[in-house]
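Example record for the data management plan.
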Amino acid sequence: MKALADPKRFQMLEAAAGELSCSQIGKRFPVAQPTISHHLKILYDAGLLEVREEGKLHFISVNQDMVRSVLGMQPKRLIRRRTAKTKMVRGTQPPKLRTQRKRK
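Corresponding structural encoding:
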């Protein structure tokens, strides 16, 4: 999830939904080639990208199994059952949060 936190990396993962060469990815993003390589390495190290070599060319695609695995476990971790103490009673208002006072 940390690898996908950066918006550029997320966009690169979306772009790699089909198989693309590194130069094709470079043409889609207006950043320097070393920056693109850095982002792709982070995605690859996280297991989100697969790389296929053909001669001197490298073709990048999304590791579909890993993406499904990550997305599949998130709802279980993010949604927890409410305990008796945390259940909202119908018709009641949620507690108000304290706000900070403006400094003069």
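Summary line stored alongside the record: The mean pLDDT is 79.
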